[in-house]
Each structure stands twice: as C-alpha cells, then as structure tokens.
Amino acid sequence: MSARTSFTTLVSMCGRFVVARANADLLPLFEIDSSGSDLPEPSYNIAPTHSIPVILDSLKTEQRRLESARWGLVPPFKKSLKDGPTPFNARVEKLGSSGMYRGAFSSRRAIIPASGFFERRKLSDLQSFYITPADGSVLAFAGLYEWWRDPADSSWLLSATIVTHPPQGQMTEVHDREPLYLDDTMLDAWLDPTEPGDEGLLAAVAESSAEVAAGLEFREVGDAWLSTAKGQYVNAPELIEPAPKGAA
Asked: Which of 21, 105, 179, 185 could be cross-linked to 197 through a Cys-Cys bond (beta carbons 3.0 to 4.6 Å apart)?
C-alpha cells in the first residue's frame, strides 16, 4: 500500500500520522544510544509503506536504537512483499494469538514516535481531525517490528506496525479504533525484549494509554491529507492547521 491508499482503507483504522520533529530531537526524548542510517525526514503525512522512525532495544548490542522501518509489518515467513498483507495496524486483541504478531509481541516490541495523527469521523459529517498532545509533547505509539530477509537477494528489511485498541475518551465520538499510547512509565517495559509479552504487560500499557488520551487535542482540519481518487498526495505543514469555519 502506498501514498495512494484508498479512502476505504484509510477510514477503517489509523492510516496517516505526522512526525514533525527532527531525528536529532528524538534522541534525548527517548534516551536513544545510537541511530541508523537513512533515517526518514520529518513528514506531515506519513502513509503505509513509507519509511518511519522506530525505536527499539537491541538484545544483541544492549543499546536503544533509532532506526528507519517500512510502515507495514513483514513477518519472517513471507516469501515476497506481494505475498499477502503487510498490516500497518495490529489489533491489540490479536497480539498473543495471531501468527502474524505473536513472535513480535513476545520480544520485538517498538516505539513509534509521532507528533500526531489524522482521523476522520466515521459517522455524521465525516469531519477530519488532527489529534495531537495539547501540551506539544511527542506521542509514543506502541508498535511491533520484524526483520525480513528477501529470498531474491538476501537483503534485510526492517518493518513495523502500530498497535491499536478500542477508543477511549473523545475518540469514541470519532472512530472505533485508536493507537495504543505509551506514557513515560511504560517505555522501558514495552521495549525490553526480556519482558514477557503477556496480558499483564497489556493491562499496564492500557492504563497508561488512558492518561495520554486524556491530554489530546482534537483539532478540526481540512481533508487535504487524504489521497484523492487521482492519487494526488499532499505533505505540508498546512495539513495540521485548523480548518477555517465552514470549510470542507
């Protein structure tokens, strides 16, 4: 799936987000030890299959790393990128049971930093919102990652997905899913590959997610973040500006 993602897919889950901070700004915020090459530049309209910044704890090097990953999880058993779905969202209810997510949930959990994300109200007026911390802080989405080796040329690809769960607070009036947020107290446990991926971890994360959700601003914006039927794609700071009253 590309920036030309269909409207039907976009409104079904969390499909566009923003990283306005430079990579260098993320390093101290998340106590990152090292960063990879080819990190993506800030973007105001990240779509599935785009490169995204991900934070992970490496058991091998014992370092917290900032890496570039493909948004859309590619599990190790895939024979090619065209071989079935590469989900950009993972339902929290399926993390422990689905073969697509079970291994990553066990020991390959990631943080996906975000300035905010776009969502469109599913009912009534289809109003678009940019959802962001009211205090200007950076969101930490709970994510999963996988390394996939391409059988064609033996190259390695890092990919990731954002975990979603049922909506809470104001989001219940907008959509039926939202990202699973991490607060500062849960960052280390979520990233720790030796911490069991189980119901206890999810319960703790869910509690912290509710506190983050309570501090979000739901800003009414225009619809330019949506790709058009002709595949037109916009990436500009104006996307997160409040929509003029009466504007579509």
From this structure: 105
What is the reported pTM? 0.92
Residue 108 tokens, joined:
């390959």
Closest CA to 207 of 145, 165, 157, 151: 165
- CA 100 centroid distance within chain: 17
* Rounded distance between C-alpha atoms, residue 197 and residue 122, angstroms: 32
Q: 220: how many CB neighbours lie within 10 A of its CB? A: 14
Residue 210 pLDDT: 94
Q: Strand 116-120 and strand 16-19: pairing?
A: antiparallel
* Cβ partners under 8 Å of residue 61, min gap 6: 34
Asked if residues 185 and 201 have their Cβ atoms less than 8 Å apart, the reply is no
Residues 88 and 10: beta-carbon distance below 8 Å: no
In the beta sheet, which residues pair with residue 34?
A: 65
**HSE-CB for 154 with a 13 A CA cutoff:** 0
- Which run of H or of E encompasses 28? helix 23-29
pLDDT tens-digit series, residues 168-191: 999 999 999 999 999 999 999 999
| Beta-bridge partner residues of 63 | 58
Contact between 178 and 169 under an 8 Å Cβ cutoff? The reply is no
Reduce the secondary structure of 125-144 to three states and give it as a string. Answer: CCCEEEEEECCCCCEEEEEE
